[in-house]
């Protein structure tokens, strides 16, 4: 069953799919691609039953990196706007579009969310942190490619600060499922990466 079917949408999904996939295929992207979205959707399948609104979580995952400009500060806000417009184009309720947009805003990861679906969404997006060393190290390399315009000392300091901020949280993951699955590995990966960046 496709997202289109789960959302109860009729009509042709092709125009929206072409528009969205073109965004994820932009040449400046290395990590924030359709491969990242596919990984997120795979993670969702493990926890779909835990979501209060799994269709909203799924749509938020599809659209959460629709806009990705490493030089910009408003990627999440713009992605949320595009998702709300897409929901309207699908004929879905404005309240649903607003719910999707709200989930996407969580992907700033500035502070841990408190509600259940935002926690689940954030954990899925952060699941890369708890992958095996090879996959995590490839993620770090891809992030560096996306920020290739940043001088090395500046990148190292900024990246280290971001990773340290996750490490300093009481828990990186907000749900029991993802804490049990990835917390220990994520902390090891973050510590390794911070040590390399020094």
Find the count of extended strands (DSSP E, 2+ residues): 0
One letter per element, helices H and strands E, the order comes to: HHHHHHHHHH
Identify low-pLDDT runs. Answer: none
- Under CATH, the topology can be stated as Catalytic domain of cyclic nucleotide phosphodiesterase 4b2b
- The average pLDDT value, as a whole number, equals 96
User: What is the assigned CATH homologous superfamily?
Assistant: 3'5'-cyclic nucleotide phosphodiesterase, catalytic domain
> What CATH first level would be assigned?
Mainly Alpha
- Sheet bearing the most strands, described? none
Q: What is the first-to-last residue Cα distance?
A: 47 Å
Tertiary shape: globular
Give the class from helix and strand content and strand pairing. mainly alpha
Beta strand %: under 5%
Helix share bin: 55-70%
Q: Evaluate the radius of gyration.
A: 17 Å
What is the count of helical runs?
A: 10
Per CATH, the architecture is Orthogonal Bundle
Outline the structure in words.
This protein has 198 residues and is mainly alpha-helical. It contains 10 helices and no strands. It has a single domain, classed as 3'5'-cyclic nucleotide phosphodiesterase, catalytic domain (Catalytic domain of cyclic nucleotide phosphodiesterase 4b2b), CATH 1.10.1300.10. The chain has helices spanning 3-6, 14-24, 34-47, 54-63, 75-89, 94-105, 116-125, 133-146, 152-167, 176-197. The longest helix has 22 residues, at 176-197. The radius of gyration is 17 Å and the shape is globular. The model has no long low-confidence stretch (mean pLDDT 96).
């Amino acid at each position: 069953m496709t997202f289109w079917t789960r959302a109860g949408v009729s009509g042709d999904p092709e125009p929206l799919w072409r528009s969205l996939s073109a965004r994820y295929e932009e040449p400046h992207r290395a990590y924030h691609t359709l491969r990242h979205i596919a990984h997120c959707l795979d993670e969702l399948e493990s926890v779909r039953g835990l979501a209060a609104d799994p269709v909203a979580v799924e749509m938020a995952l599809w659209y959460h990196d629709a806009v990705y400009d490493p030089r910009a500060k408003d990627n999440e806000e713009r992605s949320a706007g595009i998702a709300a417009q897409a929901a309207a184009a699908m004929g879905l309720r404005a309240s649903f579009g607003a719910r999707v947009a709200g989930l996407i805003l969580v992907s700033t990861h500035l502070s841990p969310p408190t509600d259940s679906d935002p926690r689940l969404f954030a954990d899925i997006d952060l699941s890369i942190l708890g992958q095996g060393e090879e996959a995590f190290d490839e993620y770090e390399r891809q992030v560096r490619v996306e920020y290739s315009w940043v001088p090395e000392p500046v990148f190292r300091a900024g990246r280290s600060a971001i990773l340290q901020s996750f490490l300093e949280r009481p828990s990186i993951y907000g749900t029991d499922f993802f804490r049990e699955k990835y917390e220990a590995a994520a902390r090891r990966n973050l510590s390794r990466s911070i040590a390399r960046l020094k």
